[in-house]
Amino acid sequence: MKASPTDVLTGIYYIDGDVAAGYGALAAGCKLVAGYPITPSTEAFEAMCRRGPQVGTVFIQMEDEFGSISAVLGAVWSGVKSMTITSGPGYSLMMESIGFGAMLETPFVLLNIQRGGPSTGVPTKTGQADMMQSRWGSHGDYELIAISPDSPQEMFDYTIKAFNLAEKYRCPVMIMSDECVGHMTEKVVIPEADKIEIEPRRFYKGPPEEYLPFSPDPDLVPKIAKAGDGLGLYITGRVHDERGYPVKNEEFKAKYVRRLVDKIRLNKDKIIELKEESTDDADVVVVSYGISSRVAVKGVEIARQKGIKVGTLRLVTVWPFPDEKIIDLAKKVKAFVVPEINYGQIVFDVARCCHGQANVVLIPHGGAGVHNPLDISDAIESAAKEDKKIEGVVEFKTRLEKIVFERGLKIKE
Amino acid sequence: MKAKETKMKEIHSAPSKKGEIHPMENLLRMDRMPHIWCPSCGIGLAVTAFASALEKANMDPNMVSIVSGIGCTGRVAGYVKLDSFHTTHGRPIAFGTGIRVANPKIKVVVFSGDGDLIAIGGNHFIHAARRNIDMLVVCVNNFIYAMTGGQVAPTTPLAAYATTSPYGCVEPPFNIPYIADSSGAVYVARWTTLHVRRLINSLAEALQKKGFSVVEVISPCGMYYSRINKLGDGLDMMKFYHDNVEIRHGEDTKNLDIGFQTKIICGKFVDRERPSYMERYNQWLSGVKGGSRDEG
Amino acid sequence: MKADPKGVLTGSHTLTGNHACAEGAFAAGCRFLGLYPIVPSLEISERFLERAPEVGATFIQMEDEVSVLAAVLGASWTGKKSMTVTSGPGLSLMMEHLGLGIMLETPCVIVDIQRVGPALGMPGRPAQGDMMQARWGSHGDYEIIALSPSSPQEMFDYTIKAFNLSERYRIPVALMSDAYVAHLQEKVVIPPAEEIEIEPRRYYKGAKDKYLPFKRDKDFVPRMVNIGDGYKFHVTGLTHDDRGYPVMNEECQEYNVHPLVWKVRNYVDEIIEVQEAETEDAEVIIISYGATSRAALKAMEQARKSGVKVGSLRLVTVWPFPEKRVAELAKKVKAFVVPEMNFGQVVLEVERCSYGDTNTFFVSHGENGVENTDDLLSAIKQAVQADKVESGIIEFNKGV
Predict the structure, then answer these.
(1) Which terminal Cβ of chain B has fewer Cβ within 10 Å, N or C?
(2) Does this model's pTM top 0.95?
(3) Do residues C227 and B65 make contact, with C-beta atoms less than 8 angstroms apart?
(4) pLDDT at B293 over 60
(5) What does pLDDT average to over chain A?
(6) Domain boundary among C169, C195, C221
(7) Number of folded domains in chain B?
(8) B92, pLDDT greater than 70
(9) Interface of B with C (CB under 8 A)
(10) Which CATH fold topology does A274-406 show?
């Protein structure tokens, strides 16, 4: 179905990633945004507060992140598309409710503008260190979808996509952005409403007495309902059967919790989106996501000028992880080079899928800044020259590390 | 008037003489000056008042620990020369509870802002008051979330503007002394950053009080609250406090709501006795077996 | 240093896993417990509270799990060894403060008695679904140490180990147990206090005005002080320099955070503990941790009896993961069989560290009971019969 013209602020804008994501949410039909101020995501929330009333979207600033995510879950069950916006510390606070959302198969979108961590970290500067947390942060078994945009235009486009995926698979969808993309100002084209595809919510339309809230369709996703439909919904975070009622035995866990996980795992091909370039004859493939993939462009250019055959694989969806793609490429290339603004997160999944067929080099960065492209090109060069098979992830020693630890640069505030 | 102004100019523009030190230096982290607060901000006043109160109350600075949360006022811990903790958003009271209960000889001071203590920290505020944990909570209330850029707070008056209430705040605000009082705090007072001397006296009193004490300090925020609401700068806000504050000691905390640019009632509202958390805990322990924990 | 006799209930007891954990905490010198009631960890708190007066420990029940870990961190800074106990939903609420504990490098122990998840799940039923969460649950970069006991005796022993590791590396340590072991009642032998080794806190003893809270020793661990000892130190969750003062740039981020990671990564050989059995000639090795190890060891015995050469690699420390040992064993065996009470968590690490040298079979364990070995034995049979190395994890399917 097409987006509603009243939701879409069609036009050409020069805005930052945060605001673009906010506009994307409105265009996708998000009718409730609950948030809590946290640098560097606040601009997204503020943009939605400003524009919300104009398009009929309600905003509420809750007392904390728990309140925000709970309000979002409640809003979804009252029938609307809903989203919350946060960053590292707030994201950590939302973990219990994310699991709750996964268990109830509640479609919602969470925008995380990552910053330097851990703990309070560096609030105003970038990081990509919540990537593993987005997959494993809550307790118990569940799967969800995470997308990593790399520009304000993508913030707009992929927020819409996030809502669509959430509705299709009835699961939480994380938009794992970062401060750099969030605060980067670029041209964003918002098209006419009829050019924007929206996934409608799959409401149950049959007779009330036959409704089973968690009875799945063939694609493993059940039809959803909302409060006020007269269906007598019972929604609980306990392990439940198809009626939604809590169960007591292990076999139910195997059946019902298993489906939560299979729902995503078995539909991986339809969910995963990658951007591959020059990987067919590459010796080294740079695997990256988010802002690092933009920085990597320069690094790759420098390496190519030296005659090295470099390909790039950009993970647009980071979760579910594209196991098969890495397994395939590993058979053909010498090494994967993974620049991430953290000390190793997605690189471990790349290494896992290599099955010893290729080397894996991590170019770490603590955060509060982006990679030096020269580090990326140097890492590519040394990976291309390395003929030995090295087990484990090789950590590239960056210029920053050398400056800080070897030459002992004085930290100036 | 003119002579006085010239004299003030002389004092402020005179280069500091060698060996001259600021009277608060022993209680402030001078190696971190200048601080991050904006011109027009009242937090600095609250900090100096607190330092003066520590001296006035004859507190041993080694046995006082200060815990802050996140926000502009949350940065206070970083500038005060005590065992100081800059913790997570909303939880300095919880952190401080851990310190106090584990070592009752330490006087815990929680110094944080209205958003940190009453919004995300609201739950911990009422529970610590209910328990009557012996700690002083200094809540600097500037009616807004300043550090993150001027969002609405649970103390933002009705109709006031903030970046997340761009069409005026639709939520009635909390009355902090009322929450503190009804949750069981034994000392509740409110002052503004204009009333420095009274604030110092109040803080000194509260420091020596056993139990959960709350001192709310109304402060200007020139960068966000007063700018977004077109109320002028810090000095204009101070003038507003001068003209609109009424001091009413012992006033029923129910009547202490603050509206947008309305009268502000200040004073000491609650000063009572209740057994503190450790007093009850020790009573229980001595009735069981083993000894009690020494309360400092 | 030896344990304080006041906390050591020397003797031979019959205790549940939870009670044994409380006794282990006392023996380790833990004198502060922050708690919030959550099934199935309640009994640890109950035992702790009951014995607290005679041991001289303090406790507080906070209003939620968020504040509990905050209180535990605060208590730790007064010099008390501190602990909290929880389960899945509570652990999820503790993630922000786990990050604070990491950043402030505060020693403490978090006991997670895992139950079926996600969300509310099944409060009284065991699972192992929080293992990856223990490693990656908080935001930002860090390393964590996690131990997994498989019996009440180990609940006692590993709680002491957890405290020792947390003091040694100035890091929160997670004790990842589960509802089964927590409620199992078995013999627990508590030795005399002088036979229990306790790691003392690494204190700074120099001049008060020269104290730098985050100046690191050679092993990247800084020295701690207590509140009230006159050091007037400042610590913050913001990225900071040696003085503990916030510095908001990438140099300081590298300076502050990289050592948090090196603190553990460079010392994995000292931290990691595994228990191997019959691995020298094994064709198939079962890699297990926690409650599933009980079934694993039984299955190993049963398989050996029927002529299949099975060995066992038991992870005492699950994090940091024993990459080297798994890689070594991968070259020698036909397959790893990894039973877990979840839908695949630590098995992903096994896959990663096999480097394609062997098959990795995953068994989602526990449906027929924690100590039931039927699925495991069938999986071992399948593993032995496989004639080539498959790409990726092979999930053992009961129906096949």
Answers:
(1) N
(2) no
(3) yes
(4) no
(5) 94
(6) C195
(7) 1
(8) yes
(9) 29, 31-32, 61-63, 65, 67, 77-78, 81-88, 91, 93-103, 105-106, 123-124, 127, 281, 285, 288-291, 293
(10) Rossmann fold (3.40.50)
